[in-house]
Amino acid sequence: MLLKKNIRVLSATLCLLAALCVPAVAVPTVKGTLELKVEQATRGAFGIDDATGQTFRAVMEAVSCDGSVFPADGRACVNVTNFFLQIGDTSWDETMTPQGQPLIFQILFGDGSVKGLAGEITPYDPAHPDLRFFLPNSPGTWEARDLITDPQTGRSRDRGTISGTYTSQLTVVPGPAGLALFGLGLIRLLTGQRRQTAT
Questions:
Q1: Which among 19, 87, 126, 168 is least surrounded, fewest beta carbons within 10 Å?
Q2: Do both 80 and 60 map to the same domain?
Q3: Lowest-pLDDT range, 6-10, 46-50, 123-127, 147-151?
């Protein structure tokens, strides 16, 4: 009887542990923020007198480009489904792509977590400043160029560049597989407790 009880507890514990481990390496969705620290800045860029030392936060959510699971280590293509960053008088979001195409980034994973990313927003649009993220690991580097060109007249306005390092606070979001294992573990634990109470 004691052996059966121990087996049930062990089985439930393994399910709970598996539920915690699976999302970290297998679920094709990441979500969180990027902390962008400014280390170099042109005065007046993006309407800010001096952005040096300031920190900006980007909100981001992305899914696997092909629906496959993320690797524990290595790079993966992601479709950015939500992105927003405001710096001074300029903002960027996931809709800023040519003809409704998806916003594609590369994410670097290590030990099942997000280590860094690479991608750019609005390089195709001369009328909007560009934003770029560079690998390798977090803290990686980023740059925003406040250069715009009027497509009608061809005249440009360049207010300079701000750049620095970013820290990734992106995490893999628990998905159905992990939640199912977590639920199964809880059920087994509760069932075991009820049987013990009944006896």
A1: 126
A2: yes
A3: 6-10
d(CA 31, CA 192): 35
**Can you give the residue range of the structural domain that contains 19?**
1-26+175-199
Give the contacts of 181 (CB within 8 A, at least 6 positions apart): 15, 16, 18, 19, 22
Query: Domain check: are 130 and 92 in the same one?
Result: yes
Residues 18, 67 within the same domain? no
Cβ contact 46:129 at 8 Å: yes
User: Among 169, 140, 132, 163, which residue's Cα sits nearest to residue 35?
Assistant: 169
Instruction: State whether 166 and 186 are in the same domain.
Output: no
Specify whether 123 is located in the same domain as 67: yes
In tens, the pLDDT along 48-79 reads 999 999 999 999 999 999 888 888 899 999 99
pLDDT digits (tens, 9 = 90+) for 161-194: 999 999 999 998 865 544 444 454 545 545 555 4
User: What is the total count of domains within the chain?
Assistant: 2
